[in-house]
Design goal:
With 184 residues, this protein is an alpha+beta fold. It has a single domain, classed as 3-Layer(aba) Sandwich (NADH Oxidase). Helix content is 40%, strand content 15%. The protein has eight helices and four strands, in the order H-H-E-H-H-H-E-H-E-H-H-E. It has a four-stranded antiparallel beta sheet with strand order 1-2-4-3. Helix 1 packs across helix 6 and helix 2 packs across helix 6.
């Protein structure tokens, strides 16, 4: 797949088959992530690859409870009944969650986001679907969340990305035209 096709074709996936993702393919995704630029070339990333379904279920429930218990939950863009629905799984039953963390400090979020984009583009180029799950971010940053996935001291969990083989239609959705301002 050509780079432009990958960029124009990648979209968030929220429906996955039960097919597992091979370790070698996951390693390829991580290798592509670490090729991203980083501030001062620090390459400050740490990756946790979770394929443990009971742990994914527990993180989903803990994240939903955390959101419901915060003011943010009252203002969440996600439909409130979804957060209260015991059948709603914030990871959409994807077989893999990759959490990208970065050393805390200047540019941690930006560094992790750059790595995340590389990972998601290479996943799409390899016929995998991905989605950054913002609903998990706050809970993963708590002491309980950090402990649950073993985030090292001094690191900030930034990008929880689900990965799997898509099921159903994954056609690109239309994009709004860019808003441009030219200053000459």
């Amino acid at each position: 797949m050509k780079l432009a096709e990958t960029i124009y074709g990648r979209r968030s996936t929220r429906a996955f088959s039960h097919q597992s993702v091979t370790k070698s393919l996951l390693e390829r995704l991580i290798d592509s992530a670490v090729q991203a630029p980083s501030a001062r070339n620090q390459q400050p990333w740490e990756f946790v690859i979770i394929q443990n379904i009971p742990l994914l279920d527990q993180i989903s429930e803990s994240s939903k409870a955390h959101i419901r218990g915060t003011e943010k939950g009252l203002l969440a863009l996600h439909p409130h009944d979804s957060l209260n629905d015991p059948d709603f799984h914030i990871f959409y039953h994807a077989p893999v969650l990759i959490v990208i963390s970065a050393e805390q400090g200047d540019w941690a979020v930006e560094n992790a986001a750059l790595a995340a984009e590389n990972l998601m583009l290479v996943a799409h180029a390899n016929a995998l679907g991905t989605c950054w799950i913002g609903l998990a971010q706050d809970w993963l940053g708590t002491a309980d969340g950090r402990r649950a996935i073993g985030v090292p001291e001094g690191f900030l969990p930034v990008a929880p990305i689900i990965v799997g083989h898509p099921s159903g239609d994954v056609s690109p959705v239309p994009r709004n035209p860019a808003r441009l301002r030219w200053i000459n």
